[in-house]
Design a protein that fits this description.
The chain has 74 residues and is an alpha+beta fold. The chain is built from one helix and six strands; from the N terminus they run ββββββα. The strands form three sheets. The protein has a two-stranded antiparallel sheet with strand order 1-6. A two-stranded antiparallel sheet has the order 2-3. A hairpin with a 2-residue loop joins strand 2 and strand 3. The chain starts with 6 loop residues before the first strand and ends in a 16-residue tail after the last helix.
Length: 74
């Protein structure tokens, strides 16, 4: 059976600019820029996962009032 991965991301848009974080390959080489986010842990709410991942990737605290978009595709 295939593994299904669920991600939660936080889009911060201020003054027409979008906050992006660098993504590094497992070997440490930079690959590209991403919106902060990451995997949802089993039993974790999307808002909680997004908040946790945002802090892990930026060191900043964020409060999420509601979800902007949910996209599904398997």
């Amino acid at each position: 059976m295939a593994n299904i991965r669920v991600r939660a991301c936080v889009a911060v848009i201020q003054e027409g600019k979008i906050l992006l974080v660098p993504h590094y390959h497992i070997n440490g080489e930079w690959t590209r820029w991403y919106i902060p986010g990451g995997g949802v842990e089993f039993g974790e709410r999307l808002q909680d996962a997004a908040t946790r991942e945002f802090f892990e990737e930026t060191g900043l605290h964020v409060h999420i009032d509601n979800l902007l978009d949910v996209s599904e595709g398997i």
